[in-house]
């Protein structure tokens, strides 16, 4: 059977699984879903403006959240705290939201969930192209796509209204472009990423090291205004509420927190929130199940690093090194966020689901370790 049929089947499985989770997860049970939807609604009601974190939500959203079986992070008065996020995802969803405004709120949310899954599904063909570029093997490319489609926690993350769906697709596109040479679209992809999530800032050092200054200039021309706006309004580049709170306490407090934090706890939480995290009412499974996957990942990571050290200098080694470097830079970004969380809330916590923006990167590294194709 031609491999394109396998690719189409995997893509379909991804979409079917995503649709299943969209129906399975009750209204507002997705992480901070009502806050993300409030951003989308603000753009419909106030076109041409961006919300502030102090703005209130609509009465329709407030009543819907307060009558839900379980309320999470929805203190009254409810404010639009997700205004801290860059606007691209919300601009995109504001278009179908206007079209479907005649439907009740639960129907609109369900449809926008499906739309988000559709966007995130672009990861499958992008992963296929990336794997072909790295391995030059159709069989391994199919395996990489199947691995992504089978990851359980990814569906929890994208089967809701939330900007991770666009971030995953853009992150996958960036990995493909970085694996290629002479890609004018690199700056556009990063610029759109910067307008989706602040963690796309970690790609900037890669562009600098690869001397892609023109691409970096394009990216900053597209998305730089958002970060300058954040700095003027909050004194931070990200405008993330915990980063703002920690920064207001001063850099001395952050430096002191480095020695006080339980970094092993941060690592552990980051790993299990990356392996599998449920929605609000079903956050985790038994800890022993996470340990099994953590051990597997550790073994594969060692295999990849050893293979990288053994292999003579060549294009494959350079590309594999770039993929590992991205994971390391992303880990540093998560560590910085964990530091802000500790300073603001005195909790040692790491957010592992953000790593799904590098899902193609991770799948390629796992495939390298499992196949021994170095």
Tell me about this structure.
- With 374 residues, this protein is mainly α.
- It is built from 18 helices and no strands.
- The mean pLDDT is 91.
Concise synopsis of the structure shown:
With about 375 residues, the protein is mainly α.
What's the main sheet like?
Answer: none
Which ranges are low-confidence, i.e. pLDDT below 50, for 5 or more consecutive residues?
none
Summing up helix and strand content along with how strands pair, one would put the structural category as mainly alpha
Total number of helices: 18
Cα separation of the termini: 27 Å
Give the fraction of residues assigned to helices: 55-70%
Round the mean pLDDT to the nearest integer and report it.
91
String of helices and strands:
HHHHHHHHHHHHHHHHHH
Radius of gyration from the CA trace? 21 Å
Topology (SSEs and partners):
Layout: H1 3-24, H2 33-45, H3 59-66, H4 88-99, H5 105-120, H6 123-135, H7 138-150, H8 152-158, H9 164-179, H10 186-194, H11 203-209, H12 213-234, H13 241-248, H14 251-260, H15 263-275, H16 287-310, H17 315-345, H18 359-371
């Amino acid at each position: 059977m031609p491999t394109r049929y396998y690719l189409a089947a995997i893509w379909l499985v991804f979409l079917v699984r995503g649709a299943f989770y969209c129906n399975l997860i009750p209204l507002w049970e997705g992480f901070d879903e009502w806050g993300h939807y409030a951003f989308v609604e603000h753009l419909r009601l106030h076109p041409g403006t961006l919300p502030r974190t102090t703005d209130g939500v609509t009465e329709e959203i407030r009543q819907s959240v307060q009558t839900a079986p379980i309320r999470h992070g929805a203190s009254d008065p409810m404010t639009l705290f997700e205004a801290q996020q860059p606007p691209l995802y919300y601009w995109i969803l504001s278009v179908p939201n206007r079209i479907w405004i005649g439907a009740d709120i639960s129907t609109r949310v369900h449809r926008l969930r499906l739309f988000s899954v559709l966007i995130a599904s672009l990861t499958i063909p992008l992963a296929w192209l990336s794997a072909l570029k790295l391995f030059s093997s159709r069989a391994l490319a199919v395996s990489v796509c199947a691995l992504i489609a089978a990851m359980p926690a990814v569906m929890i993350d994208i089967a809701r209204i939330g900007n991770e769906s666009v971030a995953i697709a853009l992150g996958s596109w960036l990995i493909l472009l970085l694996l290629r040479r002479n890609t004018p679209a690199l700056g556009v992809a990063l610029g759109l990423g910067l307008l989706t999530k602040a963690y796309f800032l970690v790609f900037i050092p890669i562009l600098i090291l690869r001397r892609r200054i023109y691409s970096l200039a394009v990216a900053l021309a597209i998305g730089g205004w958002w970060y300058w706006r954040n700095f003027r309004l909050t004194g931070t580049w990200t405008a993330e509420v915990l980063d703002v709170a920690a920064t207001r306490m001063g850099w001395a407090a952050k430096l002191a927190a480095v020695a006080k934090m339980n970094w092993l706890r941060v690592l552990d939480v980051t790993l299990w929130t990356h392996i599998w995290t449920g929605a609000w009412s079903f956050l985790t499974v038994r800890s022993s199940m996470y340990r099994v996957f953590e051990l597997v990942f550790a073994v594969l990571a060692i295999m990849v690093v050893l293979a990288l050290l053994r292999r003579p200098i060549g294009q494959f080694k350079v590309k594999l090194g770039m993929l590992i470097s991205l994971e390391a830079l992303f880990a540093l970004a998560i560590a910085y966020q964990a530091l802000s969380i500790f300073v603001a809330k005195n909790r040692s916590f790491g957010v592992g689901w953000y790593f799904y923006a590098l899902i193609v990167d991770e799948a390629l590294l796992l495939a390298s370790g499992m196949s021994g194709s170095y």
